[in-house]
Design a protein that fits this description.
The protein is of the alpha+beta class and 321 residues long. The chain is 41% helix and 9% strand. The protein has a domain at 29-213. The strands form 2 sheets. It has a 4-stranded antiparallel sheet with strand order 1-2-6-3, sandwiched between helices. The chain has a two-stranded antiparallel sheet with strand order 4-5. A hairpin with a 5-residue loop joins strand 4 (172-173) and strand 5 (179-180).
């Protein structure tokens, strides 16, 4: 009787070992470039508009990963005013991570709702999270590769996604301080996951759409966030700065974001007691930009953040007749 009880367990153990062996054998037969190709193909089959791979070493030396520990993450200040704020900007890398997979999903102008913050994030980000989770699961089930599925915010353990997208060859940081891709312009959002195995990097890309551009993005900004040079290469010790040349005022941009939040709050009737929780959530979100509500309560409002610098960019738009 004991043998009958133990045998299935032993068989299950051998079966798991066989599966692990097969995955290891499959990876050993793959080159790092083939691993990259398979991951990118799978990401696109899951709905990603773009996908690429960046090396962790390149990311550690990317502009934002060097810049933000100097200026901090407080969007209400041009420079950090506390040591704690500077520490928040430091990325903590898993010791065995060597490659980053970056996926992007297009956010068309006519699908504005994908960017509307509804109390639980945005619909577009939920699509990205689902795609990233599914890709992570597929990688671990197909290859003997460990993945680290990252949150969006650096404060919560994420990485600087714009830099990751550029190093993965998906686009270029434009004068509107957004990643501009050849296919979709800046109308795209990103997520990433890390791998403990090397996959060949797919970038950077030889692409600079801003070189001879008339800067409609900067002219369209209602907050005049691109009118003044805020950061200099001399002060910060690096040549690549926010808005390419330091002409991006994150404080002015954030004031406009706060106004967008206020407009969403004003849409809620003051006498509606059932919506008081929503008001509190908006206030918390305004203060931290990382709060998320609990429960499955349907929300009756949305924050429609400004996208004028993004939507005015001509890159990736169909040619006019």
């Amino acid at each position: 009787m004991k043998m009958l009880t133990i045998a299935p367990a032993i068989f299950g153990l051998y079966e798991c070992q066989d599966m692990s062996y097969e995955r290891s054998k499959k990876l050993n037969m793959l080159s790092s470039s083939e691993l990259t190709r398979k991951i990118i193909d799978k990401a696109k089959s899951l709905g990603a508009s773009l996908a690429g791979v960046a090396s962790i070493e390149s990311l550690k030396n990317s502009p934002s990963h060097k810049l933000y520990p100097k200026i901090g993450m407080n969007l209400n200040e041009h420079f950090a005013d506390t040591k704690e704020d500077l520490n928040i900007a430091n990325v903590f890398w898993p010791a065995d991570a060597v490659s980053a997979v970056v996926i992007g999903i297009e956010h068309k102008a006519e699908e504005a709702h994908l960017d509307w913050w509804d109390g639980k994030g945005t619909p577009g980000n939920r699509i990205l999270i689902k795609t990233n989770n599914t890709l992570s699961e597929w990688i671990e089930n197909t290859f003997p590769v460990k993945t680290y599925n990252l949150p969006y915010f650096v404060e919560k353990g994420g990485i600087f996604l714009k830099d990751a997208a550029v190093i993965a060859g998906l686009g270029y940081i434009g004068k509107n301080n957004l990643v501009i891709t050849p296919e979709y312009g800046p109308r795209i959002r990103f997520r990433a996951l890390l791998l403990n195995k090397k996959a060949t990097s797919t970038g950077p890309l030889e692409f600079n759409p801003c070189e001879n551009c008339g800067q409609p993005c900067r002219k369209a900004c209602p907050a005049n966030a691109f009118q003044t040079t805020v950061y200099s290469a001399k002060d910060l010790g690096q040549s690549i700065l926010p808005g390419i040349n330091g002409t991006y005022d994150r404080v002015s941009c954030n004031i406009k974001m706060d106004k967008d939040i206020d407009e969403a709050a004003m849409m809620i009737p003051a006498h509606d007691k059932n919506q008081q929780e929503i008001r509190q959530l908006i206030e918390e979100f305004e203060k931290s930009h990382i709060k998320t509500p609990n429960g499955d309560q349907p929300f009756k409002y949305c924050v429609k953040y400004c996208r004028k610098c993004e939507l005015s960019c001509p890159v990736g738009l169909p040619a006019r007749p």
